[in-house]
Amino acid sequence: MPVRWGAKIINTHLIRALRIAAALLIFAITACSGGSTVTVTGSSSGRPEIRDVTVAAIPTADLLGLYIAQDDGFFARQGLHVSIKKIASSQSVIAAQLAGQVDIGAGSYIPYISAQASGARFRILAEGSTLRAGTRALVVAAGSPITSIADLIGKRIGVNNTNSIGTLLIDALLTESGIAPDKVHLVTDPAGFPAMPAELKAGQWSAVFLAEPYITLAEEQYGGRVLADLDAGATLNFPVDGYVATQAWAQRYPATAAAFTRAIEEGQAVAGTDQSQVEQAMRNAEGLPSAITAIMTTPQFPTGPVDETRIQRVAEAMLDFGLLRSQFSAEVSDGALTRAMVSPPGS
Which residues of 221-259 are buried (b: 16+ CB within 10 A; e: fewer)? Predict the structure, then answer.
């Protein structure tokens, strides 16, 4: 169910500042303790090599850390001018990143891990989100005859992209329900999440895979009904999104990468603690009404160094559900594939 919030405490700016400071202190202690590998090289006080940074981002609640960092001036305080370019899926921006047209991609880990396995070289700068109940779901239209997972057999399901997080979550749901994933038809909607609730109501799909705030939008504005919450079973608390650069970019601009990551850490801390900022950032990013942003459910927003265990979990699930070919099983099993995306060279 969507999370609703009560009265706001008056001095929210002071409280937010204290929470951010506490989160960053924890981050610093973790990094110094030798627990997880710090993913960004370069001096924490170094001037960014470049000021202008383009980030390609999927417009979902998973990336609220990014939107808050932009709105609250965290990037500016780090000496960065960040331009956010909206995309339908991470997979659609990888070619642009490899060509040097986009600096950082903000979205699903899955297409990046696939590209890494195929020979591309990426670096995860920071984690974006992990699943929480209500943040990824299959939704059907009002009055739909589909009332169970079995009713999806033979049906068309709209996704923002195939071979990405939607494919994996749907495959896991079907498999755990005793249904072979090839019994449904996943179809990419090139317009992505913002267009899909209306298209569902118009009958273009039998069901759609949605992220927040578009689950809430589908329910509140179009009468949609959640058929299945995808934060369950094998994908409970599953890692979803992160902030990813090519290794070449991260090595060429280490101080810029470090500055970007520090700003994201601040944004993540606010996203996880300040509901009023969350609502405002989502309204600014997508122009959604308060009636939607006030009741949408938000995911978990990890802070601190990238957790290699979480990224490894994604790769293993991709192998289990056929999103990575078996030829990569050894590289996944020994952790080499994801380790190269988390740890700086020579670490």
Answer: ebebbebbbbbbebbeebbbbbbbbbbebbbebbbbbbb
Residues in a beta bridge with 300: 130
Per CATH, is 12-131+237-342 categorized as 3.40.190.10? yes
CA distance 242 to 39: 12
Q: Do domains 12-131+237-342 and 136-235 have the same CATH topology?
A: yes
β-pair partners for 159: 188
CATH topology for 136-235 is D-Maltodextrin-Binding Protein; domain 2 (3.40.190)
Q: For the chain, which residues make up each domain, given as ranges?
A: 12-131+237-342, 136-235
Residue type, 45: S
Nearest to 317 by CA among 200, 203, 236, 199: 236
Q: Splitting the chain (347 residues) into consecutive groups of 10 residues, what average pLDDT does each group show? A: 34 40 40 34 67 94 97 98 90 86 94 96 98 98 97 97 94 97 95 95 97 98 98 96 97 97 98 96 94 97 97 97 94 96 70
